[in-house]
Write a structure and sequence with these properties.
about 65% helix, globular, 3-stranded mixed sheet
Length: about 170
């Protein structure tokens, strides 16, 4: 498992804040005791990673679904629903380790860089739509392009998740 440079640069910081703002927009829990606990466990896990020196922050989403997210700058979100089904500290540490691994391995950054191709393709599809026969609308062409891109990248997404699972357990 390679990570060329686990450092979080200013670009990753800015991108992370943008991602975190979107995630936090779902609503956050403000139970100080739970937040303190999640941050304590998370920071213990962080101490055993190549980013041990970086300040990770852990938040609880006011969401009943069992979900967790990582922003590229080390802001980690776990839902109330996930915390409700976690049975012990080891399970919490494993979940947080998984999300921390996404940050350390820079999966979000890698995906954004790879999706820059999609952005270029969307521009090309706009030009194509202007010249295409009337049988396809702009939105239909865009939807087809998006579906083809998602099909092409689903294997990559699975690889990110498997890598984060393995590193999270470690």
């Amino acid at each position: 498992i390679e990570n060329p440079d686990p450092a979080i640069n200013s670009y990753l910081e800015k991108m992370g804040f943008a991602v975190a703002a979107q995630i936090a927009g779902q609503g956050l829990e403000h139970d100080v005791k739970k937040l303190k606990y999640v941050n304590m466990v998370g920071n213990l896990v962080v101490e055993n990673t190549p980013l041990y020196y970086h300040s990770f922050k852990f938040y609880i989403l006011a969401d009943s679904r069992p979900v967790a997210y990582a922003a590229p700058n080390g802001m980690i979100f776990v839902s109330r629903g996930l915390l409700d089904i976690i049975r012990n500290e080891a399970e919490l540490a494993c979940v947080l380790g998984h999300e921390i691994s996404h940050v350390v391995q820079q999966h979000g950054y890698a995906e954004i860089m790879k999706r820059s191709t999609q952005i270029a393709a969307e521009d090309a599809f706009e030009e194509l739509a202007a010249e295409s026969p009337a049988e396809f609308s702009d939105s239909e062409l865009e939807q087809m392009a998006f579906q083809m891109f998602e099909a092409a990248t689903s294997r990559r997404q699975t690889a990110y998740e498997l890598e984060a699972d393995m590193l999270g357990v470690i």
